[in-house]
Amino acid sequence: MHQSAIDPAVEPALTSPESSHQDSVGLARSVASSPGDILLVDDTLDNLRILTALLSQRGYDVRGVRTGAAALMGAAAQPPDLILLDINMPGMSGYEVCQKLKENPKTSAVPVIFISALNEVLDKVKAFSVGGVDYITKPFQVEEVFARIENQLAIQRLQTQLHTRNSQLQIAEGELSEALEKSRSLNNRIAEMTTLEERNRIARDIHDSLGHALVALNIQIEAALTLWTIDAEQAYSSLQEAKQLGSKALSSVRTSVAEIRADALQGKLLEQALDALLVEFQQTSQIKTTVEIDLSYPFPNAVNIAVYRIVQEGLTNICKYALATTVHLTLTTTQKNLQLSLKDDGGGFCLEASPSGFGLQGMQERAATLGGQVTITSKTGEGCHITASFPRLSD
Description:
Layout: H1 11-15, H2 17-32, E1 37-41, H3 45-57, E2 61-65, H4 68-77, E3 82-86, H5 94-103, E4 112-117, H6 124-129, E5 134-138, H7 142-227, H8 232-261, H9 270-285, E6 288-294, H10 301-322, E7 326-333, E8 337-344, H11 360-369, E9 373-378, E10 384-391
Parallel strand pairs: 1-2, 1-3, 3-4, 4-5, 6-7
Antiparallel strand pairs: 7-8, 8-10, 9-10
């Protein structure tokens, strides 16, 4: 004889119309936010009817079957959110049913709660070993049943959410990897363009400076040849001047070649490279320098190299031509752009008279390659002010 599924102490309250109405109203509120599809497997028809009614009151969708074979077919056709499975059934025990459910990929993730009567032997170790997640003994307390069911459904919902989040994270990770790859590709292209432009600039510098030196050298040699038989002393002086011009040209070539080969930042951060450059500048020129640098928002290396070269070229020209006593460098970055300012109190020059002076063309070309711009403000006797701006290029 099968034992009743409901504890007699609580069964009258469950069948009372007033209590049933209160349960259905109060319980429906909690189910509205967490309904579930439950497959109920029990060979006792009364147990099926009682449990189906109780679970339906809570808003669950309940399917009841009386055999293990029917349970396997129903679960495979429409996997439920939870299975309540009686252990002792004719033909196929609950243990066997659970094992077959776990072997099927379509139903392996469905949690199974075993049901067993107190006078039956419940092999808890076997129940968990075949894939069960919990067990309930008959006759059972109704609230205990609901608590165990809702606990497993909550775990199932959390696992589903976790799976969804993991899928979303994988998609986001893929998109991020793609964006990073595009960013690397863009930075590589910018670096290549910057390198090419730098080589072109150096080539122009070599052509201009070396061409000028060689023309002067040729003039001195011609003068020496002309004066060789007329004025040996003057011819010797011309040869000495030619030698100095040749040495100057050779030094210029070596410097330019070194610039082509060398890494401008030499593996340093921009702030470190600029600090070293300014220390060398002060030691060489004895010009007082003040510096304000805020690189809170890092920029690509191609921009850093361009900034370094602009400052380097500016300081070189200040050292050679400006006759300055102070120099002030400001460098700041924001999320959108980089701003550079290099100002001296030297003699300045007339831009209208020398529009390409002070290395302006090379600076402007270098900045334009990266979408930036360089401007120079100067007047005779009022020093010189170099400003540069670089935008943060999007991917």
